[in-house]
């Protein structure tokens, strides 16, 4: 998200409203809609902070996407606790744009 200039903290982007990536505030919580196989496992910090949340919720600041030779699609929902609808993402989306691949 940071490499793509996507606002990591959403409405919590004020300087003193987040932990700057340490994983203690949980303001960067996201839902992984598709592509969880491209992510690192939950960290110990995430396991503690998200123990009562669905397994597909992650802290974006603690989540690494892929490695240099991997390709695929990761779809996230920012602010999942405010989500108003469910996403219907096809399982096998073609990846045409190298900018969107990991």
UniProtKB/TrEMBL annotation:
Record-level Gene Ontology MF annotations: 2 iron, 2 sulfur cluster binding; metal ion binding
Location of the 2Fe-2S ferredoxin-type domain: 18-65
Keywords from the UniProt entry: 2Fe-2S, Iron, Iron-sulfur, Metal-binding
Keyword Transport among record annotations: no
InterPro entries cross-referenced by the UniProt entry: 2Fe-2S_ferredoxin-like_sf, 2Fe-2S_ferredoxin-type, Adrenodoxin-like, Beta-grasp_dom_sf
Keyword presence, Iron-sulfur: yes
Protein name: 2Fe-2S ferredoxin-type domain-containing protein
Species whose genome carries this gene: Eruca vesicaria subsp. sativa (Garden rocket)
